[in-house]
Design a protein that fits this description.
By secondary structure, this protein is mainly beta. It is built from one helix and nine strands. The protein is globular.
Length: 99
């Protein structure tokens, strides 16, 4: 499944400072769809190059990371259970800033 993943607010630093990734993600074994839970696991294994704990806590994103699926807050679409479709755009933005 082709997806566009965008990282902002400093999260791009965890992915070799690349903000936009055009990726092809396979469905998990035995699954007939791709959920955000599966995508986050894929991102941790394939895109995050350092400090995955800054992006994820358990099997979800850390508090303070805003997730948008096609410009819609994932809290409105089911969070980890959100089913993704071909050519969806998923954006991860850190709302936490150092000072």
């Amino acid at each position: 499944m082709q997806l566009t993943l965008e990282f902002g607010g400093g999260l791009e630093l965890l992915c070799d400072s690349v903000k936009i990734h055009k990726v092809n993600v396979d469905f998990p074994d035995g699954a007939d769809n791709l959920t955000m839970k599966h995508l986050l696991s894929w991102v941790r294994s394939n895109l995050i190059k350092e400090r995955p704990e800054m992006f994820m806590k358990g099997d979800s994103v850390r508090p303070g990371v805003l997730v948008l699926v096609n410009d819609c807050d994932w809290e409105l679409s089911g969070q980890l259970d959100t089913v993704l479709e071909e050519k969806d755009v998923v954006v991860f933005i850190s709302t936490l800033h150092g000072g």
